[in-house]
Design a protein that fits this description.
Oligomer: heterodimer
Strand content of chain A: over 45%
Radius of gyration of chain A: 14 Å
Largest interface: A-B, 26 and 25 residues
Helix content of chain B: under 10%
Order of helices and strands of chain B: EEEEEEEEEEEE
Distance between the termini of chain A: 39 Å
Radius of gyration of chain B: 14 Å
Number of strands of chain A: 11
Number of strands of chain B: 12
Strand content of chain B: over 45%
Helix content of chain A: under 10%
Largest sheet of chain A: 7 strands, mixed
Structural class of chain A: mainly beta
Number of helices of chain B: 0
Structural class of chain B: mainly beta
Shape of chain A: globular
């Protein structure tokens, strides 16, 4: 069966520091991968999605970036964090294109910026 | 473009009450529809799904029917429990681009 792993679970970082959040999927190949952010008490904001290695679309301009160095690995990065980057970050995967299957989510990373 | 509209919360119910959370959608193609549940501090879990008109998704006592004529996918449960307290998200997937669209979420609190 397919599983998705996301780490770390919680992270406290100072303003201006770099960021790297990692997400890996097991048990499937060529998945679509997604990064979302969820502010406290709010809905989901799609940040990036990827349909293949090095194929990444950005939904919201910001100081975050994403990379997909391997088929089942998706990384969210920043060179300099802002206070507004605080939130709950969720990685998700779904089967490739032309599918009506749902997205499956990781457990999330709670990021606090001090 | 595609979109999902979900009833505003928060919703507070007494245990064993009937639950309805409204969800309507706009789609250009033939979408699949989903309900997700998010417990505090956790990721989203798929609750149920329906892939074509008149399909009924069900899980853990929750049900939702894909109504193409009213473009709706309302979530219902006949008797809620305290453990159902969570945030519920309606979502659609519209192939072939496999774009996903989420509603804003509805917070449910069930009191004993």
């Amino acid at each position: 069966s397919q599983t998705i792993h996301q780490w770390p679970a919680t992270l406290v970082q100072p303003v201006g520091s770099p960021l790297s959040l990692e997400c890996t999927v097991e048990g499937t190949s060529n998945p679509n991968l997604y990064w979302y952010r969820q502010a406290a008490g709010r809905g989901l904001q799609l940040l990036f999605y990827s349909i293949g290695i090095d194929q990444i679309s950005s939904e919201v301009p910001q100081n975050l970036s994403a990379s997909r160095p391997q088929d089942r690995q998706f990384i969210l990065s920043s060179k300099k964090l802002l206070l507004s980057d605080s939130g709950f970050y969720l990685c998700a995967w779904s089967p490739g294109q032309f599918s009506n299957q749902p997205q499956h989510f990781g457990d999330g990373t709670r990021l606090s910026i001090l | 473009g595609d979109s999902v509209t979900q009833m505003e919360g928060p919703v507070t119910l007494s245990e064993e009450a009937f639950l309805t959370i409204n969800c309507t959608y706009t789609a250009t193609g033939y979408p699949s529809l989903f309900w997700y549940v998010q417990y505090p501090g956790e990721g989203l879990q798929l609750l149920l799904k329906a892939t074509k008109a008149d399909d009924k998704g069900s899980n853990k006592g929750f049900e939702a029917t894909y109504r193409k004529e009213t473009t709706s996918f309302h979530l219902e449960k006949g008797s809620v429990q305290v453990s159902d307290s969570a945030v519920y998200f309606c979502a659609l997937s519209d192939p072939p681009g496999n774009q996903f669209y989420f509603g804003t979420g509805t917070s449910l609190t069930v009191i004993p």
